[in-house]
Design brief:
This protein has helices spanning 23-31, 65-68, and strands spanning 2-4, 13-19, 39-45, 52-56, 59-63, 71-75. With 77 residues, the protein is α+β, with helices and mostly antiparallel strands. The chain has a 6-stranded antiparallel beta sheet with strand order 1-6-2-3-4-5. A hairpin with a 2-residue loop joins β4 and β5. It is globular, with a radius of gyration of 11 Å.
Length: 77
Amino acid sequence: MQKKLSELKTGEKAIIIQVQGSGALRRRLLDMGLVRGTEIEMVRKSPLGDPLEFLVKGYNLSLRKMECENVYVEVKQ
């Protein structure tokens, strides 16, 4: 099932299938390791829901919800 990165639930794992966005934002996401084929796991959400914390390539990454809207993932079963 395909969805946005911001829609993952805590503990869910997914594979990145597409990174969208305008120039600088897209480049920043790619530089942080969010490239197609990478496995990513939702670790936790802050109490107010922004930012979100993910485990990607062995490190914890915090992203704002608006940044997560540009990343599409395929949820692992």
